[in-house]
C-alpha cells in the first residue's frame, strides 16, 4: 500500500520533512504544497540578499525534487479563498504543517501604530522580494533609522540600509527595491540593544560583516563599559564579539558616508510623530545583579523617520487546528498535533509552528526527523483517504479556482530570474509581483 502525505510549506522545515519521508524506505508519496509560486520559504524570503553562502543551502533543499520523487504544488492556499483543510485531508493519509512563524512581535510602546513603524519580518520580506510586501514602500527619505533588536536580523536590516545601491545590485533584490535603496537618504542607522556589549548573542560572522562595510563605519555607544573593562563571558562566540566591539570603540571617524550606531543599554519607550514616525524616545537601561534589565529613568530622543523592530516572531493560527496564543505554536507532542491532550489523527507539525521561532536553518532537520518518525509510526493505523488519486487532488484544486505551479513551472520562473540577473550582472534578480511570477511560470494566460 502506498501512503500519501502532504507537507504544507516549502521552506526548510517542510523540505527537510519531505526528504526524511523519502529516505525512510517506506512506500510513501509526498506532495509539498505552498501558497507561493516559488519554493524555499525562509531561505528565499528571510535570508538577506547579500548572504549568498547561506542561500547555498537551497542546493540541499531542492534534492527531493531532482528525481521527481516529490511533487511541488505552488500557489495553493489552504483555507480562506483556497481549498479547505478538511477537504485537503480527504486526499492524504497524513498532513504535515510547516508554515513557520510570520507575525512580527510588537514593542508595546506608544506610537507604534504610526506610519514608518515596521516589523523586521515585513521589512526583510520587502527587500527579499516577497510578493505580499511589494507595496510596503518603507520611508527611506530621512537620514535616521532605528532598528530595535539584539539578534542577527537586526544586523541584517542595518547592513542592507548601510550598503550602497551599487553593492546591492550584485544581489537578487528586485528592481523596485534597488531603486528605493538607490534614492535612500539614510545615513545613520541606530541599533538599539537593551543589554551591554558582553551580553550580545550576534554570531561573530554577522557582526564582522558590518565592521567590514566599504562605505559605512560602526560607532559603538556603550557608556564607557568597554573602555573600563568588562568581565569576559564564558561563551566563546560572545568573547569574539566582545573583542571586535573593543576594537571598534577606539576607531576614529573615517569620513564614511553612512554609520551604524550600536547603542547598548538602550530600550525604546515611545515613538514620536503625527501621522508618521519623526523620532524615538529611548531609555538608558542597566542590568541588575540578578541579570534583569531595568530602566534608569534617563531618556534621550533620536531623530529618525523609520523604526524597524526585530524582536522576534510568532506563528499564525491554522484554521481547523488548535493554537497556543502564548507560544504562537500548534500544541503537539513530538510533532503530533494534540487537542486537549489528545492526538489529532493524521495531523502533524514541524519547524517554527511546532517549536517556536528558535534555532538556525539546520535546526529544522532534526526537528523534521522527529516529526517524520511520528508520521511513519502512525501511518499503518491511519484511515485511508477518501480520494487518494493524485488526479482527484488536481480536480479539487481546479474546482476552487487554483492552478498550481508544479516543479516544471517553477523552473520556468527560476530561469526568468536568472535571465534578469544576467542583465544586471547578478546571479539572479527576483520576480516579486505575484502576477509576474505566475506569468513567468505558466505563460501570459496565467491570470
From TrEMBL:
Domain FAD/NAD(P)-binding, chain residue ranges per copy: 3-188
Cofactor(s) recorded in Swiss-Prot or TrEMBL: FAD
EC number: 1.18.1.2
Pfam family name, one: Pyr_redox_2
Example GO molecular function: ferredoxin-NADP+ reductase activity
Residues binding NADP(+): 194-195, 206, 359
Gene3D superfamilies xref list: FAD/NAD(P)-binding domain, NAD(P)-binding Rossmann-like Domain
Catalytic activity: 2 reduced [2Fe-2S]-[ferredoxin] + NADP(+) + H(+) = 2 oxidized [2Fe-2S]-[ferredoxin] + NADPH
Keyword terms, alphabetized: FAD, Flavoprotein, NADP, Oxidoreductase
Residues the entry annotates as binding FAD: 13, 42, 78, 352, 359-361
InterPro entries linked: FAD/NAD-bd_sf, FAD/NAD-binding_dom, Ferredox_Rdtase, Ferredox_Rdtase_adrenod
Family to which this protein belongs: Belongs to the ferredoxin--NADP reductase type 1 family.
Stated name of the protein: ferredoxin--NADP(+) reductase
Organism of this sequence: Pseudonocardia broussonetiae
Amino acid at each position: 500500500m502506498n501512503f500519501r502525505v502532504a507537507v504544507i510549506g516549502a521552506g526548510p522545515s517542510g523540505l527537510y520533512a519531505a526528504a526524511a519521508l523519502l529516505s525512510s524506505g517506506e512506500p510513501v508519496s509526498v506532495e509539498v504544497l505552498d501558497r507561493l509560486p516559488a519554493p524555499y520559504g525562509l531561505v528565499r524570503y528571510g535570508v538577506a540578499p547579500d548572504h549568498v553562502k547561506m542561500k547555498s543551502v537551497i542546493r540541499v533543499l531542492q534534492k527531493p525534487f531532482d528525481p521527481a520523487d516529490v511533487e511541488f504544488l505552488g500557489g495553493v492556499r489552504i483555507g480562506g479563498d483556497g481549498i479547505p483543510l478538511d477537504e485537503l485531508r480527504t486526499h492524504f493519509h497524513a498532513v504535515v504543517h510547516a508554515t513557520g512563524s510570520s507575525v512580527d512581535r510588537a514593542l508595546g510602546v506608544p506610537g507604534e501604530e504610526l506610519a514608518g513603524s515596521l516589523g523586521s519580518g515585513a521589512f526583510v520580506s520587502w527587500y527579499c522580494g516577497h510578493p505580499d510586501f511589494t507595496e510596503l514602500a518603507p520611508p527611506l527619505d530621512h537620514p535616521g533609522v532605528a532598528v530595535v533588536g539584539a539578534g542577527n536580523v537586526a544586523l541584517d536590516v542595518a547592513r542592507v540600509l548601510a550598503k550602497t545601491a551599487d553593492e546591492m545590485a550584485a544581489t537578487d533584490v528586485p528592481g523596485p527595491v534597488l531603486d528605493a535603496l538607490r534614492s535612500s537618504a539614510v545615513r545613520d542607522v541606530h541599533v538599539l540593544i537593551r543589554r551591554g556589549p558582553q551580553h550580545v548573542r550576534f554570531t561573530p560572522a554577522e557582526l564582522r560583516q558590518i565592521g567590514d562595510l566599504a562605505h559605512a563605519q560602526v560607532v559603538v555607544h556603550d557608556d564607557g563599559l568597554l573602555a573600563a573593562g568588562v568581565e569576559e563571558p564564558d561563551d566563546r562566540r560572545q568573547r569574539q564579539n566582545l573583542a571586535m566591539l573593543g576594537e571598534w570603540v577606539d576607531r576614529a571617524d573615517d569620513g564614511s558616508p553612512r554609520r551604524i550606531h550600536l547603542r547598548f543599554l538602550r530600550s525604546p519607550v515611545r515613538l514620536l510623530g503625527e501621522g508618521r514616525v519623526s523620532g524615538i524616545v529611548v531609555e538608558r537601561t542597566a542590568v541588575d545583579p540578578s541579570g534583569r534589565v531595568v530602566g534608569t529613568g534617563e531618556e534621550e530622543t533620536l531623530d529618525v523617520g523609520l523604526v524597524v523592530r526585530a524582536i522576534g516572531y510568532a506563528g499564525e493560527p491554522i484554521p481547523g487546528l488548535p493554537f497556543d496564543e502564548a507560544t504562537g505554536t500548534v500544541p503537539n507532542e513530538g510533532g503530533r498535533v494534540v487537542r486537549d491532550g489528545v492526538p489529532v489523527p493524521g495531523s502533524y507539525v514541524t519547524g517554527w509552528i511546532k517549536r517556536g521561532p528558535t534555532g538556525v536553518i539546520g535546526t529544522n532537520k532534526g526537528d523534521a526527523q522527529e516529526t517524520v518518525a511520528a508520521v511513519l509510526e502512525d501511518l499503518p493505523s491511519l484511515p485511508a483517504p477518501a480520494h487518494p488519486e493524485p488526479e482527484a487532488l488536481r480536480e479539487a484544486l481546479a474546482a476552487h479556482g487554483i492552478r498550481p505551479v508544479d516543479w516544471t513551472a517553477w523552473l520556468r520562473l527560476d530561469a526568468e530570474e536568472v535571465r534578469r540577473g544576467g542583465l544586471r550582472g547578478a546571479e539572479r534578480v527576483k520576480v516579486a509581483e505575484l502576477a509576474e511570477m505566475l506569468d513567468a511560470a505558466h505563460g501570459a494566460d496565467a491570470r
